[in-house]
Amino acid sequence: MTGSAPTKRLFIKTYGCQMNVYDSERMADVLAPLGYGVTSTPEDADLVVLNTCHIREKATEKVYSELGQIKLMKQARAQAGGKMTIAVAGCVAQAEGEQIMLRQPAVDLVVGPQAYHQLPELIARAHRARGERLAADFAADEKFDALPVARNPDGVTAFLTVQEGCDKFCTFCVVPYTRGGEWSRPVETILAEARDLAAKGVREVTLLGQNVNAYAGEGGLAGLARQLAQIEGLDRIRYTTSHPADMDDALIEAHAELPQLMPYLHLPVQAGSDKILKAMNRAHTAESYLRLVEKIRAARPDIAMSGDFIVGFPGERDADFEATLSLVREVGYAASFTFKYSRRPGTPAAALPGQVEEAVKDERLARLNALIDEQQRAFNAAQVGKVLPVLFEKPGRHPGQLSGRSPYLQAVHVEGPERLIGQIVPVRIETAHKMSLAGVLEMESA
Ligand code: 5AD
Ligand code: SF4
């Protein structure tokens, strides 16, 4: 199905009805993109699935006795330095649930008939639970997986990692498999590092995490921001990347109350069609995202929104893509990152029907980019005539020029003395470009 040869062996034992026979085939289909090819013997399988049936009396007992046999095979594999994962599916799984794992601890996962599409996620979670990383299965892809690199080391801005990993399992994404589960650094460690950065002259920190607003240290991300805001000299706090599902009221409130929390929020939505969002396993609808943005803007009316978008996800029709454009029009983004859907072997979406032709993706990407560019230009143009506090970071490209950032993360260029680097200074914005602003120091123009 993926075009690549299987690297792992899958043994499925099917009990009962024709429905189960059909489901077993579906499971094999869902698992093929993860590199599983079907084998006829359980002994050498990397993954054993018992697709159970509940209809006959004593069926459950039969399953447990079968599991006892497979457990011995799992032990033999382990002794030989290998690994076997055991899954129980079907009606017994439905009826008994997690009970099965209590009674037979060799079982790694239990999956009911409604959840076979989640098998890749469940297997990844089971592997994580026993401390395995799955990175070897995936080719690294910097474009989708890399965190931003420091803009200017030893400078006035710094990145600070507070969280890693992801539990969201968007069906297109490799991160939950390659980076593992969500994990947060303790508050104290982060505060100590931030104090140290501030002492070295850092004025702005960007808190980093694949799912930064899922930060689970005490007080969550809002609490962390409040504590960071108390550090002398640390005048600006940013964070990226956030998931809509973790954008809680405390964090929104912090945006209303903390002047240090910069009015710029990267909040990927990925698509505007509910059908596609569901297939992406995004856990939000277009409507719930729009309501969330509304709530954030009620707390901080000037906030600049930015997003990530994928065009050409499997099954995306013209009408779905139009829904993305209309969501973009409704939100009005200050900046965005746009991607053509790229099929990543091992992710559930790679196995979905309705893969979109490259030419269609190109055309949609061009239309989306045109709209995003227009919004970005409009957002920049709206700053002309305003006075913005600019944190100067470094000399500009031309002699006598300084380069800094507005609260909205726009690059700002002015003529000015180098001693202003590291300071936050009012700048009167005179011209706007697609990617940057130019202006004059307010004190000199007055
Ligand atoms: N294809 C296209 N875009 C992807 N992204 C992640 N995985 C894929 C993929 N397989 C994009 C998402 C995510 C951003 C970091 O990369 O938009 O938010
Ligand atoms: Fe990937 Fe982000 Fe989705 Fe996590 S939330 S699975 S990192 S796209």
TrEMBL record:
Domain named TRAM: residues: 381-443
Main subcellular location: cytoplasm
Subcellular location: Cytoplasm
Lineage top rank: taxon: Bacteria
Reactions accelerated catalytically: N(6)-dimethylallyladenosine(37) in tRNA + (sulfur carrier)-SH + AH2 + 2 S-adenosyl-L-methionine = 2-methylsulfanyl-N(6)-dimethylallyladenosine(37) in tRNA + (sulfur carrier)-H + 5'-deoxyadenosine + L-methionine + A + S-adenosyl-L-homocysteine + 2 H(+)
Pfam families from the UniProt entry: Radical_SAM, TRAM, UPF0004
Domain MTTase N-terminal: 8-128
GO CC annotations, alphabetized: cytosol
Keywords (A to Z) from UniProt: 4Fe-4S, Cytoplasm, Iron, Iron-sulfur, Metal-binding, S-adenosyl-L-methionine, Transferase, tRNA processing
EC number annotated for this UniProt entry: 2.8.4.3
Cofactor: [4Fe-4S] cluster
InterPro entries in UniProt: Elp3/MiaA/NifB-like_rSAM (IPR006638), Methylthiotransferase (IPR005839), Methylthiotransferase_CS (IPR020612), Methylthiotransferase_N (IPR013848), Methylthiotransferase_N_sf (IPR038135), MiaB_methiolase (IPR006463), rSAM (IPR007197), rSAM_horseshoe (IPR023404)
MF term (GO), any: tRNA-2-methylthio-N(6)-dimethylallyladenosine(37) synthase activity
Residues that, per the record, bind [4Fe-4S] cluster 1: 17, 53, 91
Cofactor stoichiometry and binding remark: Binds 2 [4Fe-4S] clusters. One cluster is coordinated with 3 cysteines and an exchangeable S-adenosyl-L-methionine.
Record flagged with keyword RNA-binding: no
Residue span, Radical SAM core domain: 152-378
Residues noted as binding [4Fe-4S] cluster 2 in the record, renumbered to the chain: 166, 170, 173
Family, per entry: Belongs to the methylthiotransferase family. MiaB subfamily.
Main function: Catalyzes the methylthiolation of N6-(dimethylallyl)adenosine (i(6)A), leading to the formation of 2-methylthio-N6-(dimethylallyl)adenosine (ms(2)i(6)A) at position 37 in tRNAs that read codons beginning with uridine.
Oligomer status and interactors: Monomer.
Protein name (Swiss-Prot/TrEMBL): tRNA-2-methylthio-N(6)-dimethylallyladenosine synthase
Organism annotation: Phenylobacterium haematophilum
Species lineage: Bacteria, Pseudomonadati, Pseudomonadota, Alphaproteobacteria, Caulobacterales
